[in-house]
């Protein structure tokens, strides 16, 4: 079981802006970790932007030869917390963790703190809202048995709050595809886009074989 990523996003219509994150991509080859991280950021941004206020999403998505689950919770203050795990990680704990992160982030930072943050402003100041707590949570929740204080949040997480999707494509509007969003993304370099395309072709070849 593995937690790959915990992040906080500011919702912006059909897109979102990553305000804070912690990730563990140590199982990937050192030379591709940057590309993997960039692609996961695009995927998390897509999932975050499509999560209705006060709701949680659980989305299974195959990428780069692995099956991931994106767990999101959208806080009514305008931010969405995202947790990425493997398929074996307990979904309810991951979603409860997303809810915990959203609650604690908004308790630390009022909406006015991130109201004027844009993708352009992040280029000059990539870490405007320091949130080191994510690194500690990422380490702690690698073992879901250590989720000792999450039970209260789990009780608050009513089943009606959770929407389950099979793929990221299923949360997009008609005519949209995750492939096209990757190619249009301003957050990805041409190298990362090429890496995504090549990895997808490689996976398709493996399936055919």
From TrEMBL:
Predominant place of localization: membrane
Molecular-function GO terms, alphabetical: SNAP receptor activity
Superkingdom of origin organism: Eukaryota
Keyword tags: Cell membrane, Coiled coil, Lipoprotein, Membrane, Methylation, Palmitate, Prenylation
Gene Ontology cellular-component terms listed: Golgi apparatus; plasma membrane
GO BP of this protein: endoplasmic reticulum to Golgi vesicle-mediated transport
Membrane-protein topology: Lipid-anchor
Localization (cell): Cell membrane
CDD domains reported in the protein's UniProt record: Longin, R-SNARE_YKT6
Gene3D superfamilies, sorted: 1.20.5.110, Longin domain
Domain annotation V-SNARE coiled-coil homology: ranges: 149-209
One family name in Pfam for this protein: Longin
Protein's UniProt keywords contain Membrane: yes
PANTHER family named among the record's database cross-references: SYNAPTOBREVIN HOMOLOG YKT6
Record-given protein name: Synaptobrevin homolog YKT6
Organism: Corynespora cassiicola Philippines
């Amino acid at each position: 079981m593995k937690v790959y990523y915990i992040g906080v996003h500011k919702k912006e219509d059909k897109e979102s802006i990553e305000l804070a994150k912690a990730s563990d991509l140590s199982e990937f080859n050192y030379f591709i970790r940057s590309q993997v991280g960039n692609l996961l950021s695009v995927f998390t941004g897509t999932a975050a932007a499509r999560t209705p206020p006060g709701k949680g999403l659980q989305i299974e998505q195959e990428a780069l030869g692995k099956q991931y689950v994106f767990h999101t919770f959208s806080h009514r203050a305008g931010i969405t917390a995202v947790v990425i795990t493997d398929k074996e990680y307990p979904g309810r704990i991951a979603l409860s963790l997303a809810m915990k992160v959203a609650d604690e982030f908004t308790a630390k930072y009022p909406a006015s703190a991130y109201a004027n943050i844009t993708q352009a402003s992040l280029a000059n100041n990539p870490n405007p809202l320091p949130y080191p707590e994510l690194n500690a949570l990422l380490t702690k929740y690698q073992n879901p048995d250590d989720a000792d204080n999450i039970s209260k949040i789990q009780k608050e997480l009513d089943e009606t709050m959770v929407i389950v999707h099979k793929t990221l494509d299923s949360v997009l509007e008609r005519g949209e595809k995750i492939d096209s969003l990757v190619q249009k993304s301003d957050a990805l370099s041409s190298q990362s886009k090429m890496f995504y395309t090549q990895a997808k072709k490689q996976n398709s070849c493996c399936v055919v074989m």
